[in-house]
Amino acid sequence: MENFWKILRKTDAKKRLSVPISFLRSLPPFKLGSHAVTFEATDEKGEAWAFQCSIRKRGQYPKPVLTRGWVAFVKSKKLQVGDKVRFMKHKNRATAAISYKVRVEKEIKVFGAIFGYARI
Q: How many CB atoms lie within 10 A of CB 35?
């Protein structure tokens, strides 16, 4: 089950990943009064990454972002502006356990033109 994908922009690649509001429904519930929730996602190699999703404390629009853990992930994967990231939630039918996966695709350029994406 795919939850969302995004082509990285400058802020996404350098500081934090802004995510769609609809992604909040896929995350563990926020504790009462809390503005952040931590979840773990495994990459294509099976390595676990802990991310924190935060929302604004005030205002009508929560503007969810991944903060803690995100920059380390970007550096480890050598992600850049234009690369693609996917987050997926999976529910095990037998145990009802929830898990998350994160996948990245590097932008492929040929003679300066975007040719496509390759999974890494």
A: 14
φ, ψ of residue 13 to 5 degrees: the values are: -80, -20
- pLDDT band at residue 33, thresholds of 50, 70 and 90? confident
Task: Provide the domain limits for residue 43.
Answer: 2-119
How many domains are there within the chain? Answer: 1
List the CATH number of the domain containing 66.
2.40.330.10
Separation CA 25–CA 30 (nearest Å):
10
| Rounded distance between C-alpha atoms, residue 53 and residue 64, angstroms | 6
Model confidence pLDDT, tens digit, residues 53-73:
999 877 777 889 999 999 999
pTM (predicted TM-score): 0.84
Lowest mean pLDDT among 27-31, 39-43, 44-48, 84-88: 27-31
CB 62 within 8 A of CB 56: yes
